[in-house]
Design goal:
The complex is a heterotrimer. By secondary structure, chain A is an all-alpha fold. Helices cover 70% and strands 1% of the residues of chain A. A two-stranded antiparallel ribbon of chain A has the order 1-2. Chain A is flat, with a radius of gyration of 24 Å. The two termini of chain A are 23 Å apart. Chain B contains 16 helices and no strands. In chain B, 67% of the residues lie in helices and 0% in strands. Chain B has two domains: 56 residues, no CATH class; 223 residues, MetI-like (MetI-like fold). By secondary structure, chain C is α/β, with parallel strands linked by helices. Helices cover 40% and strands 13% of the residues of chain C. A five-stranded mixed beta sheet of chain C has the order 2-1-3-13-4. In chain C, strands 6-10-5-11 form a four-stranded mixed beta sheet. In chain C, strands 7-8-9 form a three-stranded antiparallel beta sheet. In chain C, a hairpin with a 7-residue loop joins strand 8 and strand 9. In chain C, helix 18 packs across helix 19. Chain C starts with a helix and ends with a helix. The chains are: A mainly alpha, B mainly alpha, C alpha/beta. The interface between A and B is large, with 103 and 120 residues.
């Protein structure tokens, strides 16, 4: 009864939500039956309902080898680096650009930092290769400085850093737009009264800007946490490819299962891996949402 | 580092003036801070623009010059070969048109739907807002799986070879919805109550007051949707077999993946695909980026002078 | 300053692009479906109901494809009355797109598949229709154009599940060698692997800024890794060959055509091991490029003139590589060197073709699909679909060669109609290459493998194969290109993969025994 009463009371609001709800039902919830093929030996001619059930068989290939822990760790570790530094640098850029007094500089820099987002991974990987191969630009520069050359592509330890730098370069412009939009919304009177109190710019940033957009920061972090078990296949496979020397630090769940299944093309097995990633993601978000709720109830997602 | 006693936007806003820079605080510390700010901005912008410039400039390099010299700030031999190759035939124009239609229609619809939906999730009076939020988030993480998604669109909705197959599946991106939610939540609570005072309904309130004061974030989300639609090749790969409906990105993908056939074809087979040149890869980046780059400076004005809450209320 | 220039340039591009986009509407009308009944008046007696065949093949739509399709439909208008709806799938997404299409049961009439893609899995899943009867009835030209040995070797469980599209019984294998540098160094034409090594070391010593050798380091091209590639050469007298279960991997192999599967973990085959050790030496001596595993396209470095030797599939030097190299340095030139044993009967072949075209089980136009392919297997129609419109896209050189006149049409008969009877050779190739191609097309030059016609059904060991594949990817190309210390890596590889390899080997052997017993 309470349900109907609530709907009636706020019927206008719920009306606004109808297109969104229909969308979620059609394109997310109804197709979820597709996850069933993770538990069957899927045969197209028999369809999802007619194929043979095999229980957890499709998960065996992934959990059967010792590599699943390593690739899961790599996925989470790299994504955590990307998330923290990606959002951190984006925030820094948004704040600094906002502080700049020259409108021209503001506008131009905003546009420029967005550009890398559009360069495809294919081209990015070719440029990295030109830059970092053994006879590449970077080693030539090092040579001029009298530093002996580094075999970048043979040194797995360096790649989490390199990938993070590439990620920051490619995406911080994108994320900074969100922060800039949020900063614009902050009421000016806070800054004015702060200035009257003699606060420096740094103090204003720390005590007004950041706290004001705190919920946006937390939301972005929480959104990232839900995807933390999904590696960026386009990026990692584009840059690392099949270079096995770099696998120990860069092989993520998505590249691993791609490689394991590329000869088999088995939908059941690939669905099993995706389901594993999703469930881990849900677990992660439930935990982090709870933490967010404790620290700052306003910022939680749900 | 944050000081909990400092006011945040939750507090009751007062009517206010446009922001004025107070110029009398040019202490040494402030100057150092500004210099630091400018330095970071300039350096980071340079790091972003130089590779892009190289892509742009070298897309005009002759193939021989590229093979000889690799990436250069200014190619030693200029040539329009890459663009001539790409601009031949009518497919590019057809694809461009398709991409534009999808991006424009898709963005308009998506922003409208997402903005409305997010408002409901953010509205304090809605009892089931957390349930809705959770369902939205779950949809983002769990998704439908490829097979279910494909069967839904191709077999049940019969959208194969329809331009709607490129628009509908992205109409509400949970990620963007939550950005909007975060923004709405930061609005003063009183705004939501204005309706009761004026006697207007929630729908009217949303369109008359909430949307106009949300311009910066609406602009942001519009930009993101436009990019999402513009850059997508996946939906068209799955659902569009008719090449007359192929958007730009799929056309480019097809062209580029022909370059690397060997990387996809196993078994030691050999395929005689005449590889398009390096400069074509770069030229495709420049061609695809076109309208989107144009969109950004256009939307920028909404960031700089976002309509302030006070102005609307007053 | 540079920034400003950059922005100006970006803006001008945008404007150009915007302009083009704006006037795109006009060019829209010439859709491919052509006019439904504009062409020649149909003869009532032989005319079949009009039908549109949907055909899915990999590649990129050639610019002049519409004109070719229009011409083909015109020729068929009186009789077959077939319209063509050809869907080109990007190579990068071929597996996913074809798989999802077949999975959803969509109506496709002809589809490309291959042993390296998922033909055996799709056959096991019941996606394709058997073609034996249809071919007997509707496909005389298709049957006639391919030698009986090819049909026999390309059946799946004794049935024709796809029409093999290929012209040779062995794939050509060569090294591209920089002829100009070889001559400059005063080295005689290369006849043996030792000659090749002498050349490589001479390059290392005397030619700066050039990598002597760049084998392939990517997992999908592991057959082109330095140690693996050597099994094609004549010193492999035992005919050590990768097994049918793990494509291109020498970990499971056959030898001496004895119907047995061997396991490198058990046998430590001295010859294979010597190849691995030699590649290690080459890597340490900086003969092999230090970033060999990171290089995705060896051809690119070859074009840049930075590589003295690269391995390649196919006889002869690809025209685009040669041209690009010459554009960098007019004096530079690649020659193709094969070390295969050309003696009659020396090379073993399973005659398995790399490309097939199949009829999905769900197709409602199976007869018409085969009728169309049969039509396309007639010389003049084949010429149209393979090379485009004569005089506009290509010209004939004699009876069996062709020359493209422009890049309006690309060569892709392998995807649907390729066969030895109607194929033309590229006139641009040198005589040696043409001879080698002819040699490869004649089945009498080879010994037929006992396992010809055998296909491995992997259902019983899918888990083992997927686990094994992902482990192998960590070690194989690194070891076979000498990037890592072989003994140490081999021990690790063995510890992880040996039990899996054993299971796959046993299953394979079981199936082979059953196959041979039935023969």
């Amino acid at each position: 009864m309470g349900f109907i009463k609530e709907i009636m009371k706020n019927r206008q609001l719920y009306t606004l939500a109808i297109p969104g709800i229909v969308f979620l039902a059609l394109f997310s919830y109804i197709p979820m039956f597709g996850h069933l093929i993770a538990f069957e030996r899927f045969q197209p001619v028999k369809g999802i309902w007619g194929s043979e059930w095999v229980g957890l068989d499709n998960f065996k290939f992934f959990f059967g080898s010792q590599d699943w822990l390593r690739v899961t760790f790599n996925t989470v570790y790299l994504n955590a680096l990307f998330l923290i530094f990606g959002i951190g640098i984006a925030l820094l850029l948004a704040i600094l650009i906002n502080e700049a007094t020259s409108t021209l500089l503001k506008k131009i820099s905003q546009s420029l930092i967005f550009l890398p987002y559009f360069i495809s991974w294919l081209v990015v990987s070719l440029m990295i290769m030109a830059f970092m191969s053994t006879d590449g630009l970077l080693n030539q520069w090092l040579g001029q400085l009298g530093i002996s050359e580094v075999n970048w592509y043979q040194n797995a330890k360096l790649w989490p850093i390199i990938l993070t730098l590439v990620y920051v370069w490619k995406f911080s412009g994108y994320y900074s737009v969100i922060f800039m939009a949020a900063i614009v919304g902050i009421s000016n009177e806070y800054y004015e009264s702060a200035r009257i109190d003699g606060a420096t710019r740094l103090q204003q940033i720390l005590h007004i800007t950041i706290p004001s957009i705190r919920s946006v920061i937390v939301v972005l972090l929480l959104l990232g946490v839900g995807r933390i078990f999904f590696g960026d296949f386009g990026m990692i496979y584009g840059i690392i490819g099949d270079n096995s020397i770099l696998f120990p630090t860069t092989d993520v769940i998505d590249t691993y299962s791609f490689r394991a299944l590329r000869q088999l093309g088995n939908f059941g097995m690939s669905s099993a891996v995706v389901l594993y990633q999703s469930i881990m993601g849900i677990a992660a978000i439930l935990i982090f949402n709870k933490i967010a709720k404790k620290i700052d109830p306003e910022s939680r997602l749900f | 580092m944050t000081n909990p006693s400092m006011p945040v936007t939750k507090d009751k806003p007062k009517p206010k003036m446009k922001r004025n820079k107070i110029k009398n605080d040019q202490s040494f510390g402030e100057k150092a801070f500004l210099t630091f700010t400018y330095l970071i901005i300039v350096v980071f912008s340079a790091v972003c623009v130089i590779p892009f410039w190289i892509v742009l400039a070298d897309s005009f390099a002759s193939e021989a010059s590229f093979l000889k010299n690799g990436y250069q700030l200014l190619p030693s031999e200029w040539s329009l070969d890459a663009y001539i190759y790409l601009l031949q035939g009518s497919q590019l124009l057809t694809s461009y048109k398709n991409s534009l239609i999808v991006a424009i229609v898709g963005t308009l619809l998506a922003v409208a739907i997402t903005a409305m939906f997010a408002y409901v999730i953010a509205h304090p009076r809605v009892k089931y807002r957390n349930v809705l939020a959770f369902l939205t988030y779950l949809a983002m993480v769990l998704g439908g799986g490829l097979v279910g998604f494909y069967i839904m669109i191709a077999n049940w909705l019969h959208l194969k070879d329809s331009i709607w197959a490129l628009i509908l599946p992205y109409l509400m991106n949970p990620f963007y919805a939550f950005i909007l939610v975060a923004f709405y939540k930061s609005l003063p609570y009183e705004i939501n109550e204005a309706a009761t005072i004026d006697g207007a309904g929630d729908i009217k309130l949303f369109f008359k007051i909430i949307l106009p004061i949300s311009t910066p974030v609406i602009a942001t989300v519009s930009l993101f949707y436009a990019i999402l639609y513009w850059n997508d090749w996946y939906l068209s790969l799955l659902f569009i077999d008719d090449h007359n409906l192929h958007p730009l990105q799929l056309m480019i993908r097809q062209l580029i993946s022909n370059l690397n056939v060997a990387a996809y074809v196993g078994g030691g087979a050999s395929y005689q695909v005449s590889a398009p040149s390096n400069s074509i890869q770069l030229a495709t980046v420049c061609l695809t980026i076109g309208p989107i780059v144009l969109l950004y400076p256009f939307l920028q004005k909404y960031f700089v002078k976002g309509i302030t809450i006070g102005a609307v209320k007053g | 300053m540079r920034t400003k220039k950059g922005i100006a340039a970006i803006l001008s591009i945008i404007m150009l692009v915007g302009l083009l986009a704006a006037c795109s509407g006009k060019t829209e009308n010439n859709a491919p479906s052509a006019s439904p009944d504009g062409a020649a008046a149909p003869e009532a007696s032989t005319k079949l109901d009009p039908v549109t065949l949907k055909i899915m093949i990999p590649g990129d739509r050639p610019r002049d494809f519409d004109a070719v399709v229009a011409e083909a439909e015109k020729r068929m208008a009186g009789t077959l009355n077939v319209k063509l709806d050809v869907v080109f799938v990007p190579w990068a997404d071929l597996a996913q797109k074809t798989q999802v299409t077949l999975s959803s049961g969509e109506n496709i009439d002809l589809i490309f598949d291959a042993p390296w893609l998922h033909i055996t899995q799709q056959i096991a899943a019941g996606s394709y229709a058997p073609l034996d009867d249809l071919l007997q009835q509707y496909g005389p030209n298709i049957l006639k154009n391919r030698p009986q040995a090819m049909w026999d070797a390309n059946k799946f469980d004794g049935k024709i599940m796809g029409i093999p599209n290929g012209i040779t019984f062995v794939q050509g294998r060569v090294y591209y060698v920089r002829k100009d540098i070889r001559e400059q160094l005063g080295i005689a034409p290369i006849q043996t692997y030792d000659d090749l090594m002498k050349f490589a070391y001479a390059v290392k010593e005397k030619v700066p800024n050039m990598t002597p050798m760049i084998p392939a380091g990517q997992d999908v091209t592991k057959g082109l890794s330095e140690a693996s590639f050597r099994h094609y050469w004549k010193d492999n007298t035992a005919n050590i060959t990768p097994s049918p279960a793990l494509s291109e991997s020498l970990v499971l192999y056959t030898k001496n055509n004895d119907g047995k599967v061997y396991n490198l973990f058990d046998e430590m085959e001295p010859m294979v091991w010597s190849w691995i050790e030699n590649s290690r030496k080459l890597y340490q001596d900086k003969i092999i490029h230090p970033d060999v595993l990171a290089i995705k396209d060896t051809g690119e470095l070859a074009k840049q003139g930075k590589a003295a030797i690269i391995p390649n599939n196919d006889f002869g030097v690809k025209n685009d590589v040669q041209q690009a190299l010459k554009s960098v340095d007019p004096n530079a030139e690649f020659e193709a060197v094969t070390l295969m044993n050309l003696d009659k009967g020396a090379v073993l072949t399973n005659a398995l073709q790399y490309n097939f075209i199949s009829v999905p089980a769900v197709s409602k136009n199976k007869e018409r699909a085969i009728q169309f392919l049969d039509w396309a297997n007639q010389k003049e129609n084949y010429d149209l679909l393979a090379y485009g419109v004569e005089g506009k896209n290509w010209e004939a050189v004699g009876d069996d060669q062709y020359k493209f006149l422009n890049d309006g049409y690309t060569w892709f008969p392998f995807a649907w109609i390729w066969n030895p009877a109607t194929d033309r050779q590229d006139a641009g190739q040198d005589d040696v290459t043409k001879q080698l191609n002819q040699w490869g097309a004649d089945v009498n030059n080879f010994t037929l493998d006992k396992l010809a016609g055998f296909t491995f059904n992997n259902t019983a060991v899918v888990n083992e194969i997927s686990q094994y594949t992902s482990i192998e990817a960590k070690y194989y190309t690194a070891m076979f290109n000498g990037v890592v210390e072989p003994n140490e890596y081999w021990a690790k590889f063995k510890a992880e993969a040996a039990p899996l390899a054993k299971k796959i080997q046993n299953e394979l052997q079981k199936q082979i025994d059953a196959f041979l017993a039935a023969k």
